[in-house]
Prior knowledge:
Blueprint: H1 8-19, E1 24-25, H2 31-39, E2 43-46, E3 56-59, H3 61-70
Antiparallel strand pairs: 1-3, 2-3
Amino acid sequence: KKGHEMTEQQRKWLDLVRMSKDGQREDLLPPKVARWMERSGYVDRRIPTNPSHYERFVITAAGIAALSELSR
Length: 72
């Protein structure tokens, strides 16, 4: 969202998702953080083909752009 500064803790969570090769398991993220990232468009849910696996969050282009903005 425009006008919303990302906190250091939020940046760390988003960076964790970015570094996860196959996406971050949704059960390993705090629900409030997951909702914020999803609503901001920084992550997408990926539903695995095997129903015994957890859903995952994968970073979007908007999430990558937001992280690169912060590192300037």
